[in-house]
Amino acid sequence: MTTDSPQPTDAELVAAVLKGEQELFSDLVQRYQGRLVNYLFRLLRSTQEAEDLAQEVFFKLYQALDRFNPQYKFSTWLFRIAQNAAIDRIRKRRLQLVSMDRQGSGDEDLGTWEFASPDPGPYRDLRNLERGEAIQQAIDSLPWDYRELIVLRHYGELSYDEIAKLKDMPLGTVKNKLFRGRQMMKENLHDFLTD
Amino acid sequence: MNSKQPDHSTLREWLYLEPDGELTAGQRSRLQQHLATCQDCSEEHRELLALNRLLADSRVPVHADFRREVMAGLPSAGWEARSPRSWMAAAVAVILLSIGAGLLIGFSTTEVQSAVPIATLSAVWGLLSSSALAGAGLIAASWKGLGIAFQQVLGQSMWNMIAFGVLVFFLDLLLIRFLLRRRTADAKADTDSHSN
Predict the structure, then answer these.
(1) Taking the model in full, what pTM does it have?
(2) Under a CB-based contact definition with an 8 Å cutoff, are residues A151 and B55 in contact?
(3) Is 0.90 exceeded by the ipTM?
(4) Nearest CB to B54; choose among A76, A135, A155
(5) Which end of chain B has fewer CB within 10 Å, C or N?
(6) Which of the 8 DSSP states describes residue A98?
(7) Which residue of A has its CA nearest to B13?
């Protein structure tokens, strides 16, 4: 794999790793770490837990790498493993999957990250925090199947086709659910969309 | 859908597909024409783009050492032992060791330098053939010893032989069942992981 050659595909990287170039697994991690951690973060609501689980997902993936079928997309395989791991983790935490009531759950870390906000000012941090909480609340208020699709699209950055394959849904259903999910998000975040 | 003018609800659905690149060029063009004339849709489109930006900006950064930590913590995988590089490394090590041993033996003789390669090959061949012979002898001796033990225990009566035969038969059945279950489990795991 030379640096001036075009970027290898996921399937090519997997094949190279299986042939003994284990260090190339690092490229796959690099490709998907941001999307995976963000996807898990939005479902688990804790950056630390999301990163821990993302590591576990990469470990599982590595151990099962010889079972990867290049006929399918690597991303859908990865997110399927991640989705199962997240659901297991949520079940273990005994969270309600539908209409989550966030009151009284003081152990949740909403991730006080900073937005790349174009309007710096004395209340910038507070505004960012408010926005972060509002987004999480808007996501949490969605019914589970809408929430999953919104998170897969906006944080996992999967295409409609990838989501359809991952969720085993017709493409039309994915489009429809994303359409409705975004309408709900828009209503919930209306105050932040007029800036 | 492409030939006739889409209705308003269809255009509204397109509105949501457009930022994701899910429209054809023709559909995009019709949508743009519609947005230029419909204020409600134009406002909804603006809000949708703002929502997409808001969500994109809310992505959390992954800590800088994440990749290194993943690579450092990778567990061993069953397939690693089957990878060509593993075999190659072992083969190269054996060849180098053999050549080294051969050279040592070759140089220790008083013959001229030109005889070294032949002495090396001869030494390697001698080493391999001795190992093979010793291994074969060990296996043969083990099986022969086992055979003698069985003969002494089972050969005393016909019933002992029959009981032993039945035992072997059931052990075979157990083995076959175990292998079939494992293959089924492997196939199921493959299906589960690729049913996407």
Answers:
(1) 0.65
(2) no
(3) no
(4) A135
(5) N
(6) S
(7) A179
What rounded mean pLDDT belongs to chain B? 79
Give the residue from B114, B80, B69 showing the smallest Cα distance to A29.
B69
Residues 6+ apart with CB under 8 A from A186: A193, B47, B48, B51
Query: DSSP assignment of A44-92, as one string?
Result: H--HHHHHHHHHHHHHHHHHTGGG--TTS-HHHHHHHHHHHHHHHHHHH
- Identify the closest residue of chain A to B68 by CA–CA distance: A26
Structure tokens given for B9? 């609800």
Percent of chain A with pLDDT strictly greater than 70: 79
A75 and A13, same structural domain?
Answer: yes
The CATH number covering residue A88 comes to 1.10.1740.10
Can you read off the two tokens belonging to residue A130?
């408010």
The model's confidence at residue B139, banded by pLDDT at 50, 70 and 90, is: confident
A51: in domain: yes
Residue B50: which of A26, A165, A193 has the nearest Cβ? A193
pLDDT band of residue A116 (cuts 50, 70, 90) is: very low
The CA distance from A67 to the nearest CA of chain B, in Å, is 6
Token pair listed for B143: 């099986």
Domain span at residue A27 reads: 8-97
pLDDT cut 90: percent of chain A above it: 63
Token reading at A100: 């989550």
pLDDT at B111 over 80: no
Angle at the Cα of A107 (from A103 to A110), degrees rounded to 5? 80
The helix, strand and coil proportions of chain B, stated in percent and rounded to the nearest 5, come to: 85, 0, 15
